[in-house]
Design brief:
alpha+beta, BirA Bifunctional Protein, domain 2, three-stranded antiparallel β-sheet, 11 helices, 38% helix, 20% strand, rod-shaped
Length: 343
């Protein structure tokens, strides 16, 4: 029996299988019903009692070694099989990562800017952290003017006569442009703005605007109306109609709210447009002479118009999105619907 045990140990040490079938063949040869170890355990019954303790330990150790060797060889061969060459193009990546798409707000903002660039407008940008002068005072908002209450402001500090705050509109960029450039001026000002408002389906404390400014000699309200109509046709189609309603802004006079015919019901009336057939898209007006003068532009020689729109609002109309909060939740299921992948 000792000779057979030693022979099994030699076979075990020299066993180097190349396939799973060879491992299985070795297992059956050693551990099967008619295997070598099975026969040894049957013969163990006839061993003299004085030798049973020692031989029994050797047999159990040998069985454990054979079982462990079979397990290790199987695992190694399976791993080699998984890592082995596969059919196909081996130069391709192992897997493709999901590619993000551009945000709908970015897509609409880029489309708005493209329309106005084709109309001859340049793009101007400015800081999000601004001072009171550029956000309010230079735009005809006196310190105690009630119009300041129209915009709930995030102030950073108010320790001076010119407090620092988060801009509430990109009109501050228009002021900076008028201070540094001489007419003719024709710019659009995109950017993020902040207002201390309760977040809901129709409002948010962070949103994006695109504001426009055109200053030159003999600029009229008719020029403003034509520019808005051309934008509406480019953004919403040539069937879009606009209307201008009298309104009030401290920095323009006269001022107007601009509505567009509802693109959902085609002006017939629905829940989105509250059955009026119209949807508000922007505010506009002729630049107040006091605003021109505050920035060093002669209001006797020059006139101009300004307009401003919320990018999220335009995106809501373009894609019939009913909840403003979806833009800020970064839900991939929502974002991937717009489909333009980032290159």
């Amino acid at each position: 029996m000792r000779t057979i045990i030693n022979n099994v140990l030699e076979q075990l040490e020299s066993f180097r299988p190349g396939t799973l079938a060879q491992v299985e063949e070795f297992r059956v040869h050693m551990l099967g019903k008619k295997g070598v170890l099975t026969r040894l355990f049957e013969e163990f019954k006839n061993v003299e009692p004085a030798q049973k303790r020692e031989l029994g330990q050797h047999l159990n150790q040998l069985k454990n070694k054979v079982q462990e060797a079979v397990k290790v060889h199987k695992e190694q061969l399976l791993l080699q099989t998984e890592r082995g060459p596969k059919e196909g193009d081996l130069t391709r990546p192992a897997h493709f990562a999901d590619v993000g798409s551009r945000h709908p707000v970015s897509l609409v903002q880029r489309e708005i800017l493209s329309i106005y660039e084709r109309m001859g407008f340049a793009i101007a940008e400015g800081p999000e952290i601004e001072d009171d002068w550029h956000v309010f005072s230079a735009l005809n908002f006196p310190p105690d003017h009630p119009a300041r209450d129209m915009q709930d402001t995030f102030f950073i500090h108010t320790d001076s006569d010119n407090p620092v705050l988060l801009r509430t509109h990109t009109s501050s960029v228009q002021v900076r442009t008028m201070e540094t450039q001489k007419p003719p001026i024709r710019v659009v000002c995109p950017g993020r703005v902040f207002r201390n408002e309760a977040i809901s389906a129709r409002a948010h404390c962070i949103f994006h605007q695109v504001e426009g400014l055109y200053i030159d000699e003999n600029v009229s309200f008719a020029d403003l109306k034509q520019a808005i109509l051309l934008f509406a046709h480019e953004m919403f189609g040539t069937s879009a109609r606009i209307r201008l309603r009298p309104s009030y802004f401290p920095f323009t006079e006269p001022s107007a709210e601009v509505d567009i015919s509802c693109n959902i019901c085609d002006g017939g009336g629905c829940n989105v447009c509250k059955h009026t057939g119209w949807l508000e898209i922007m505010g506009a007006g002729m630049v107040d002479p006091d605003v021109l003068q505050a920035s060093g532009i002669d209001p006797e020689k020059y006139s101009g118009y300004a307009f401003g729109m919320g990018v999220e609002r335009i995106a809501m109309l373009k894609w019939q999105i009913k909840d403003l909060r979806l833009y800020f939740e970064n839900d991939v299921r929502f974002l991937e619907q717009f489909g333009e992948e980032v290159p």
